[in-house]
Structures are given as C-alpha cells and as structure tokens.
Write a structure and sequence with these properties.
The chain is of the alpha/beta class and 323 residues long. 43% of the residues lie in helices and 11% in strands. The protein has helices at 5-14, 61-71, 81-84, 87-98, 106-121, 125-139, 149-161, 167-180, 204-208, 224-234, 237-245, 259-264, 282-285, 313-322, and strands spanning 193-196, 201-203, 213-218, 248-254, 274-278, 296-301, 306-308. It has a seven-stranded mixed β-sheet with strand order 2-1-5-4-3-6-7. The longest helix has 16 residues, at 106-121.
Length: 323
Amino acid sequence: MRILTSIIAATAFALSGCAQSSPSTRTDNATSQPPLAVVEPAAGDDNQLPLPQIPDSMTDPAQRAVYVVSHFWDSMDFANTAQSLDTAFIEQNFANFASLFPVIDIPTVLPQVAKSLMNKAEANRDAYNLLAETADKYLYDPNSPMLNEEAYIPFLEAITEGSFVDNALRARYEAHLEDACKNRVGTTARDFDIIFHSGATSTLLKECRGAKAAIILFYDPECGNCARLVHEMNSDGALTAAIVSGRVKIIAVYPDGDADEFAASAGKIPARWTDAMSIGGKVSEEEIYSLRAMPSVYLLDGNGTVILKDADAGEAVATALSM
C-alpha cells in the first residue's frame, strides 16, 4: 500500500479525531491542515489502479479524501476479466481502497460509493462475486486487520437490495447483515440477565454503571486463547490501576449457560473482574450478540453505549484507559 502513504498521512493528520471504529468523529480544524497529496503507482506497477486526480481547486483534506474514495474505482473495467477475476489484483486494490475508510465519514460517504461499485461490478457475475467475497474477507473476517463492520454494512446493503446475486449467496449476505447490525457502535447494547458464582443475579447494563468504561469479555472456560488474553490483561498495570480506581470495569461473560461448566471455572477470572454467566445461555441461544470467535471483546461506556464491537483487546484497553 505504498502508493497511499501520503494520502493516509495527510488525511490522518488533518482528521486526527477519526478512528476506524468511529469514523464519523472529526476535528474542527481539518481545513487548516496541508492538502492531501495523491501519489501515482510506480511505473510498470500493473497491480495497482491509477489513483484519481483530485482537482487542484479542492484543498480541504476531508473533501479530498472523500473524492479519492468516491472515484477510486473509476478506471476499473470489470468486464476485463484479466483484472476483475485476478484475486491478487482485486484484493490489493480493495485493501488500498479500504485503508482510506478511517479518514472519511463512513455513514454519509460509503453507502453511495458501495452501491455504485457493486453496480459497476455487475459487468461480470464472477467478478461481482469475487468483489463481494473480498469485501467480506477484509471487512468482516474476525482475523482481518481491517475488520470494520460499519464499513461492511453499506456493501451488504448494496448486495442484498439488488437482484444480481443468487438465492444462496443472498441468504448468506442477509445473515451477515443481520449479524453486523446487532449492537452497532453508538447504540445501547442489548441487556441480558447474568448470574455470578455466588448465585446472585444482575444484568449486563447494571454492572456497567458507575464506570467510565466497561470491557465485556465473552469467553469459554475451556478456551486456551481466552485464558491467554485474561493473563495478558491481568498483567497490565495501568489497566489494573484503572479497575482499582473504579474508572474501568471488566465483565467476563460465559455466554453458553452451562451451569456445571461455569461452576467448574471458578477462580479462572481475576478477583477484581466481574465473572458471570448468561442465564439460560440466552446470549448464545438467541444470538443477541455477534460472537464469531472466542474470546470476543466489546467496549461499553457506563451507560451501556457500544464504543467498540468485536474489538481487538489491545484497542479496547487503550480506548477504555483514555475514557
């Protein structure tokens, strides 16, 4: 992604309040920053689409970023199957394209861009399917470093609202859309009943109260990755200090509701954390949260508003400590 270095550097500096998980936040002084520069691909680099030429009259960095995202695929001919069916070509360019999402206002910019791009890809059915699969891989795969469900939703809406995909694929993408729309960033998280090892009960949102931030760690007692993450987080001195002060809470939730397994897991979660089980396994049974991998981390504020969804644990901790 060398060709996008100056784009990202200029817009990221100008829009330093932007973050991938909350792309709509902007600084007020964006127009005072240096204009965004576009760097063309190196000569002979046939694996990169030429970047759109931004009009010289457009000097506002935010507008320039929107222009690049909106016109990124202008030179792409999806009927040219030498490129449109080349997985490496499509993935490289989609990665370049998606790397700009953190510096645009996703809810206002991306719906029309995604719709236009998917319409353009209808020139070839296999190319359309490859593009859809690439969006899924980069924006929805839990292991993708570019995971961004808010950016994926406009693509899912474009795909499912159209009539181009067959019924089997439509059902798949409709399921993804339903999942992505659960507990979206900025909404109040779904509440559910929980029980502690003591037998006392509460609800998730009640346990969030009184803290600036609540890290929700969905875990399985037999999950090795969960145990490693618990150890890493418990070894974080700054996080522990924030927990002791009451600014941050960590609520570990076993979502499956197996009372015997939960009872056997007593002591695996640090004493300063809240260790609870979803009563009756409602979280898993009714799929009220998107838990596509274990462990799964959410960050809420004290009112239960979702700050980060299915987040990287390090990002969740850093964000919680800044709240």
